[in-house]
Amino acid sequence: xxxxxxxxxxxxxxxxxxxxxxxxxxxxxxxxxxxxxxxxxxxxxxxxxxxxxxxxxxxxxxxxxxxxxxxxxxxxxxxxxxxxxxxxxxxxxxxxxxxxxxxxxxxxxxxxxxxxxxxxxxxxxxxxxxxxxxxxxxxxxxxxxxxxxxxxxxxxxxxxxxxxxxxxxxxxxxxxxxxxxxxxxxxxxxxxxxxxxxxxxxxxxxxxxxxxxxxxxxxxxxxxxxxxxxxxxxxxxxxxxxxxxxxxxxxxxxxxxxxxxxxxxxxxxxxxxxxxxxxxxxxxxxxxxxxxxxxxxxxxxxxxxxxxxxxxxxxxxxxxxxxxxxxxxxxxxxxxxxxxxxxxxxxxxxxxxxxxxxxxxxxxxxxxxxxxxxxxxxxxxxxxxx
Length: 386
Description:
Blueprint lengths: L10 E11 L18 E3 L5 E5 L6 H21 L3 E3 L23 H14 L8 E7 L2 H7 L6 H27 L4 E3 L10 E3 L25 H13 L13 E4 L6 H7 L3 E8 L10 H15 L8 H14 L6 H17 L7 H13 L7 H6 L5
Antiparallel strand pairs: 1-3, 1-4, 1-5, 2-3, 5-9, 6-7, 8-9
Helix pairs in contact: 4-7, 4-8, 5-6, 7-10, 9-10
């Protein structure tokens, strides 16, 4: 008997950024040790390792793949007397000289050019913030099943991902509330040369107004993929963005293959990327599987909501709420809205008992916000190298 496509089917991938540190817990000053392995590269700086899983058919499989890469990385680093710093906020550093730009060269030299632009515009220290990106795509079979109007499949798929993108931009604050995990930072982030652990007013500095944001608010057109890419290209042509990669919003739409606006406009959306996850020091791999599963369920739920235009005012509100959710004491109104969404999700997934445990997990996390107990594990581990 032919198996009916499940709404929970999908393809998943993880990208985890971490810093390499030496035996003193200081930023490692050695070259990137993993060669040209496409699954073990670096991000902004030479001492920031990025592990990239292949595309997987389940979240568990993606975590298994990340675990294999993590073990491989740790084995190499152990031989060098180095470790992985499994926190989103960096350790103490004395000067920005300890943050060497990733030494891409040859056919990849443009990557270094881009990072030099980031250094001039934002400074090096901002680029030390590390986190996890969660990539997701719907199976083609499921999309075809949903395309009951027999629309052109390319247009239909682009429309699905654009609709989801708009809802995720509008609700990214909820995922920040549930995954913020960096309430402490070293004073060297405030003033070079100073040292000492500070309890921040933020639960997640990288998602806050001190984190990854452009120096202006890009206002995008979401009416079609062509309009969307053109609205980003406008800022690139004006010199306000070096490239589309400099668009610092918590959600991205990506094409298959080369990640460029031209490829996205010509060939459409292949997957969606969620970029707001802090490294969780209480999780061995830096992310709790339940957080990823909730994110997947949230995407399915959001796709069931009425489409939204996402006006300029709504785009501004989305960024403001995302940053507010990163506070150690976020607005009670956001917490209340989050509880209401989880309640609606429970009703939406009523026929799928496998979601109940994850929704209960998320509801309990929201209940704990505002209590110091939720940060006990970070308080214990904040000076450790994991």
